[in-house]
Write a structure and sequence with these properties.
The structure is a single chain. The chain has about 475 residues and is mostly helical. It has helices at about 20-40, 105-125, 135-165, 165-175, 200-220, 225-265, 275-290, 300-310, 315-320, 350-375, 410-420, 425-435; strands at about 45-55, 60-70, 330-335, 340-345, 400, 410, 465. A hairpin with an 8-residue loop joins β1 and β2 (about 60-70). The structure holds benzoyl coenzyme A (BYC). Benzoyl coenzyme A binds near residues 191, 294 and 295.
């Protein structure tokens, strides 16, 4: 169970380590200041129907109630230790997991934890203004739930930095509150987290595609030899599942409404909705930005992380039988002499791509569900994921141009077709024009269908946010 009597709620017996407790209690006001400065703008005094962790046991871990966001009990919650856990993969597979950081891996572990940590506050900053244009109180509450939990994920990583990395870790924890999404001088580390998130179609794409990268990165870190990191990530994954459903179901509701309005008016935009072609462009943009987050297809960093046991494949311990990944190859398409050709890459060097493939399969599964929803609405439009070569800025495809079907094309051809494939200024202005707030319980903006059910057994017209 979680101790809520301490100033920082935790299940790590924080009060037994006074130095660590004091250091984190010093960081706490800086965190709260950051939340006030760049967290959800305009709603800090509103009562929001939020879930809070009360245990880390599967099933029934959350308590629901109206809370003002600054009063949310951010804390440190690790998944239960697994008895006799061994390192799942890499050179040390089968050896006992580490409870401390081995000196030789200190730098890379710190870098990975900082990279993961940096995304959490970044996403809160990106979503800062969205409350003001929420299409319903139901959606506004979901936004804020996602925001407070991303804040909690920052706590999860800052705990590791403080507890295991000494002064370097404390300095990194301070820097996490100093960088800002999209800031020219002190940007967030990864590209997707510096992109603006000005409208709700973007928010749903972000939670569907970018949070899903989070699922796979956390899953790969849950397979880590560094046990405190693994346990932290395991509990974060249970929180993450809600964020993904916000994205998946949010987009489905926009699609259903788009299809309904198209049937009624011949063109969804005429009825004040978002047409499916526009939704496809947003999907293309965010899916590809999220593919970038896995790093390069061929990466010596990835090989090193896997060899050391710091990152595993998705479900390394459960789904794989061979854990060395040596003397094996991953075949991928590369650009050679102006053409696409297949190349065998040593499996360890292809680990970023292996994880990306797991992610892509998961996205395909959602795509099928969305297309079934379109069928259900009587629409003949079908959405598709673009090729993982399309519109990439990281990795082996970043220097060439590809169509959404994955064909190698010239830069001029790419430019000529860009407006068909990615959001144009005009598309963005149109979507922005629809972003008018709806704050009456149970009412929805015209461009989005109502959800099928409310939260925690409540009706859709429950007052999920009591506005101050
Ligand atoms: N943007 O060998 P490479 C989440 C850098 S999301 C900018 O290709 P590597 C969440 C890379 O850092 C999950 N730079 O890649 C979602 C390296 O730089 P240095 C976040 C990039 O190292 C929603 C260089 O390019 N978690 O949780 O194998 C809301 C060459 O690197 C990018 C993690 O990322 C990019 N997209 O792997 C809230 C897990 N991609 O070192 C939260 C921790 C690469 O040469 N991170 N670079 O200067 C990692 O495991 C790895 O750092 C990466 C990259 C997978 C990101």
């Amino acid at each position: 169970m979680i101790n809520y009597d301490d100033r920082i709620p935790n299940n790590v017996d924080l009060s037994s380590d006074k130095r660590l407790q004091r250091a984190l209690e010093k960081w706490q006001p800086a965190y709260l200041q950051w939340w006030q400065d760049v967290g959800p703008e305009g709603y800090q005094a509103s009562d929001v129907y939020l879930r809070t962790a009360i245990s880390t046991e599967p099933g029934g871990w959350a308590h629901f109630g109206h809370v003002k966001m600054p009063d949310y009990r951010w804390g440190i919650f690790l998944g239960a230790p697994e008895k006799d856990r061994v390192i799942p993969g890499g050179d040390h597979a089968g050896a006992p997991v580490w409870q401390e950081v081995p000196g030789e891996y200190r730098n890379i572990l710190r870098r990975i934890i900082v990279t993961q940590a940096d995304t959490e506050p970044a996403s809160v900053e990106q979503q800062r203004w969205l409350g003001k244009t929420a299409p319903s109180l139901f959606d506004m509450r979901n936004l804020f739930q996602v925001n407070v939990e991303e804040g909690r994920h920052l706590w999860a990583m800052v705990y590791l930095l403080h507890a295991y990395f000494g002064k370097d870790g404390r300095d990194e924890a301070d820097d996490l509150l100093a960088r800002r999404s999209g800031d020219a001088d002190k940007p967030r580390i990864l590209d997707a987290f510096n992109q603006p998130c000005p409208d709700w179609l973007t928010f749903f794409c972000f939670t569907m595609f970018t949070d899903r990268d989070g699922k796979y990165q956390l899953g790969s870190l849950a397979e880590s030899a560094f046990d405190p990191l693994s346990r932290t990530c395991r509990f974060m994954l249970t929180e993450e599942a809600h964020h993904l459903s916000v994205g998946e179901l949010g987009l489905e509701r926009v699609m259903r409404r788009g299809a309904q309005l198209e049937k009624q008016f011949g063109d969804a935009r005429k009825g004040g909705g978002i047409d499916l072609a526009t939704i496809q462009k947003w999907i293309n943009y965010w899916y590809c930005y999220s593919l970038d987050l896995f790093g390069s297809e061929v990466s010596s960093n990835a090989a090193e992380f896997f060899a050391a046991g710091i990152k595993g494949r998705w479900a390394e311990a459960k789904d794989h039988t061979e854990h060395s990944a040596l003397n094996q190859f991953h075949t991928m398409a590369v650009v050679k002499d102006g053409k696409l050709a297949e190349q065998d890459v040593p499996l360890r060097n292809a680990m970023n791509e292996v994880l990306r493939q797991s992610y892509m399969k998961d996205c395909e599964r959602v795509m099928k569900r969305w297309n079934a929803a379109l069928e259900d609405e009587g629409s003949s439009f079908r959405l598709a994921l673009p090729s993982s070569r399309f519109f990439r800025r990281q990795g082996i495809y970043a220097d060439a141009h590809f169509s959404p079907a994955g064909e190698l094309i010239s830069a001029s051809e790419f430019q000529r077709r860009l407006a068909d494939w990615l959001p144009t200024d005009e598309d963005r202005a149109y979507v922005q024009s629809l972003m008018q707030p709806v704050t009456e319980p149970g009412k929805m903006a015209n461009w989005i269908a109502a959800p099928r059910k409310g939260i925690n057994g409540n009706d859709v017209d429950y007052e999920y946010v009591r506005l101050a």
